[in-house]
């Protein structure tokens, strides 16, 4: 005989002490879009991994209930029905995203003259606040700075020039050369660009220790590149020289700031004369001195921005042979962004032969970003290899699920049928659930009913079927069709996550008529979490029976 005392105590508790912060129902797990090939690549910080959601398995319904409030509810300790939430562990596939983390050295990027330019630190764009109020040039500096900050570049350049001409000994003068050049550069006009070059050259000659000295080197290379693209042969010659020096010299410092003019020069040269630029970039990538790794990493990026016959071959060579793992991973990432047939072949060869697990994961991610049948087939081929590393196969399965492709779905369903690895099967269930198709939801429901499968996989399939829109009528009818206690627990939880009237009606029916005491308690608990007035009315009626 069912003990009505404990049931009534549970009902009373939920009516009297509503939780302060009821758990949010997991109605929908949003689709995680793939990363598009971007014309301008911003600074990409390391993405945090998705937290382990399996902790919700037994605790989610109890989060808002204090220990004192649990008196009489000891029977609720067995909320194993929430084990279906383990399916959320499939989100760990997002840990692939740290392949983007290595890009932080590229810094901000901006479009200049139709090309993408790398800025590890770039150059200064905002003058320091005035610092020498007794200096004779202070008022001119303040006025010029204010005009520059208001984007009145021509006027700002004129005042900075006035400062240079009138107060040669001012403490503001060394940097005024830079700011006058910067303002002229921002006007974009050909005569002003030439004047900016003259100012920067003069600053370097007269004030080599100016605080904006490193900024001047980067700005000068940027201005020269813009002039070169407009047909200025002298500027083109200087760009060639800077890029050539980059390939010839050994890096003696490990400062990213020192790379700015070199990278800008390589980029400008690549845009105007790829035939001469590629050999220089290859020489840079052949460097092996300890401090050139950052420069090589940026050189890979620059190469990826201009398609040549050698682009994919060079990046594949870097991915296989560079001694620095981050440089190798950058080459793999940008192969994915190039996305050509040759790039797919290169990535496929890395996936097939890579001994480095991190490089393998980056290659899988890179393939997932290429929207082509051949890239998808390469991922499917790898995921189907039983002798491949299990974690890498799981990554491939995850990214196949993000593509929302019918061929991928058919492959994953077939792979589930022949796989003996339960972890891989869990990832397949999750990936299929993310595609949100009627066929996949039907497959999940069939799996939930398959008594030949292990119960945990069936529960996960049921959970995701409920999350992805399985017909509520089918879910309600399933409760009476199954005799498995664990599956009934899971169904109660699934009902609690749905909005339909039928779901609430079924929970009320279970709370009133189920002969299994533990199942009744679970139904009562979830009714107590509902904000539907009919749930509260049903609980009152149970008390008054």
What does the model show?
- Helix content is 61%, strand content 1%.
- With 545 residues, the chain is mostly helical.
- A two-stranded antiparallel sheet has the order 1-2.
- Helix 3 runs antiparallel to helix 4 and helix 7 packs across helix 8.
- The radius of gyration is 32 Å and the shape is elongated.
- The two termini are 16 Å apart.
- The N terminus is likely disordered.
Shape: elongated
Counting H and I runs of at least 4 residues, what is the number of helices? 26
Q: Assembly type of the shown chains?
A: single chain
What is the gyration radius calculated from CA atoms? 32 Å
Structural class computed from helices and strand pairing: mainly alpha
N/C terminus separation? 16 Å
Order of adjacent strands in the largest pleated sheet: 1-2
Largest sheet: 2 strands, antiparallel
Helix percentage: 55-70%
Q: What is the helix/strand order?
A: HHEEHHHHHHHHHHHHHHHHHHHHHHHH
Beta-strand residue fraction: under 5%
The low-pLDDT segments are 1-121
- Count of distinct strands: 2
Mean pLDDT equals 78
Keywords:
mainly alpha; two-stranded antiparallel ribbon; 545 residues; disordered N terminus; 26 helices
Task: Provide a compact summary of the structure.
By secondary structure, the chain is an all-alpha fold.
């Amino acid at each position: 005989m069912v003990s009505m005392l404990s049931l009534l105590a549970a009902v009373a508790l939920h009516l009297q002490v509503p939780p302060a912060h009821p758990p949010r129902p997991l109605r929908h797990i949003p689709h995680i879009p793939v990363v598009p090939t971007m014309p301008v690549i911003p600074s990409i910080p390391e993405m945090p991994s998705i937290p382990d959601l399996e902790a919700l398995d037994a605790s989610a319904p109890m989060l808002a209930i204090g220990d004192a409030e649990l008196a009489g509810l000891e029977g609720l300790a067995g909320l194993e029905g929430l084990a279906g939430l383990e399916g959320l562990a499939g989100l760990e596939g997002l840990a692939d995203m740290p392949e983007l983390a290595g890009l932080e050295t590229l810094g901000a990027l901006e479009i200049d003259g139709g090309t993408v330019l790398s800025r590890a630190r770039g150059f200064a764009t905002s003058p320091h606040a005035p610092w020498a109020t007794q200096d004779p040039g202070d008022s001119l500096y303040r006025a010029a700075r204010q005009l520059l900050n208001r984007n009145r570049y021509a006027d700002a350049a004129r005042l900075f020039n006035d400062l240079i001409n009138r107060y040669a000994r001012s403490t503001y003068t060394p940097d005024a050369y830079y700011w006058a050049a910067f303002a002229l550069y921002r006007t974009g006009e050909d005569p002003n660009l030439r004047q900016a070059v003259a100012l920067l050259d003069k600053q370097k000659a007269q004030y080599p220790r100016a605080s904006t000295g490193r900024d001047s080197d980067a700005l000068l290379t940027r201005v020269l590149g813009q002039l070169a693209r407009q047909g200025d042969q002298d500027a083109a010659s200087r760009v060639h020289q800077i890029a050539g020096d980059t390939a010839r010299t050994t890096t003696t410092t490990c400062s990213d700031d020192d790379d700015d003019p070199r990278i800008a020069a390589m980029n400008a040269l690549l845009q105007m004369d790829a035939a001469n630029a590629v050999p220089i970039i290859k020489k840079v990538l052949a460097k092996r001195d300890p401090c050139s790794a950052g420069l090589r990493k940026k050189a890979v990026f620059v190469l990826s921005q201009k398609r040549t016959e050698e682009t994919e071959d060079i990046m594949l060579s870097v991915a296989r042979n560079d001694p620095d793992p981050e440089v190798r991973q950058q080459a793999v990432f940008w192969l994915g962004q190039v996305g050509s047939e040759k790039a797919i072949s290169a990535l496929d060869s890395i996936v097939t032969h890579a001994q480095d697990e991190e490089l393998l994961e980056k290659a899988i991610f890179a393939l997932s970003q290429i929207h082509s049948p051949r890239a998808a087939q390469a991922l499917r081929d790898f995921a189907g290899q039983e002798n491949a590393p299990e974690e890498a196969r799981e990554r491939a399965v995850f990214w196949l699920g993000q593509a929302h492709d019918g061929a991928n779905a058919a492959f994953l369903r077939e792979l589930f049928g022949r796989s003996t690895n339960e972890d891989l099967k869990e990832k397949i269930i999750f990936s299929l659930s993310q595609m949100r198709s009627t066929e996949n939801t039907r497959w999940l429901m069939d799996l939930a009913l398959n008594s030949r499968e292990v119960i945990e996989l069936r529960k996960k399939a049921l959970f995701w079927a409920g999350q992805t829109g399985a017909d509520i009528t089918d879910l309600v009818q399933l409760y009476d069709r199954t005799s498995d206690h664990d599956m009934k627990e899971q169904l109660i939880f699934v009902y609690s996550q749905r909005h339909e009237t039928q779901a609430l009606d079924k929970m009320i029916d279970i709370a009133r008529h189920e002969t299994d005491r533990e199942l009744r308690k679970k139904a009562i608990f979830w009714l107590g979490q509902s904000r539907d007035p009919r749930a509260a009315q049903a609980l009152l009626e149970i008390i008054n029976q």
